[in-house]
């Protein structure tokens, strides 16, 4: 059983893809709280919080799309890895592109893994379970 208190931050601009991810998580019986950001800037605001709202509490993991407006997934990775408070975040890159690893050249060690949108494997579930407090 997966610890329900571990939040999942989905950083995805496309509504259809976000629904596919939600259904895939449900199919794997992953019922953790899911928070969605539509781009990297919104995700950073959710993680860091604001004057009126606290940031997303740990433990959490991030499902990150690469192609987004305003701040792409690669730009988000650059920003998060420079932030002392966020740099240790567990990040899975979501993609439907077979060349996604090539898009992340130089970031290989900064992500936990790659996931195909709609296909959540036992490896992903094991990583989620590893975050149990």
TrEMBL record:
Keyword Nucleotidyltransferase carried by entry: no
InterPro entries: CheY-like_superfamily (IPR011006), Sig_transdc_resp-reg_receiver (IPR001789), TCS_response_regulator (IPR052893)
Record's keyword terms, sorted: Phosphoprotein
Modified residues (4-aspartylphosphate): 65
Transmembrane segments annotated in the record for this chain: none
Pfam families (UniProt xref): Response_reg
Segments forming domain Response regulatory: 7-132
One annotated GO biological process: phosphorelay signal transduction system
PANTHER family according to UniProt: RESPONSE REGULATOR RCP1, RESPONSE REGULATOR RCP1-RELATED
Annotated protein name in UniProt: Two-component system response regulator
Species per Swiss-Prot/TrEMBL record: Blastopirellula marina
Taxon lineage: Bacteria, Pseudomonadati, Planctomycetota, Planctomycetia, Pirellulales
């Amino acid at each position: 059983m997966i610890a329900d208190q571990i939040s999942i931050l989905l950083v995805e601009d496309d509504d259809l893809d976000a629904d596919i991810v939600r259904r895939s998580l449900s199919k794997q019986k992953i019922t953790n709280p899911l928070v969605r950001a539509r781009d990297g800037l919104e995700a950073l605001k959710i993680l860091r919080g604001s004057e009126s709202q606290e940031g997303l509490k740990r433990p959490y993991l991030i499902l990150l799309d690469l192609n987004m407006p305003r701040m792409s997934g690669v730009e988000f990775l650059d920003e998060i890895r420079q932030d002392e408070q966020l740099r240790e975040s567990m990040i899975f890159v979501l993609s439907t592109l077979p060349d996604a690893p090539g898009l992340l050249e130089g970031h290989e060690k900064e992500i936990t893994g790659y996931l195909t949108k709609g296909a959540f494997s036992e490896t992903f579930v094991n990583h989620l379970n590893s975050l149990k407090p």
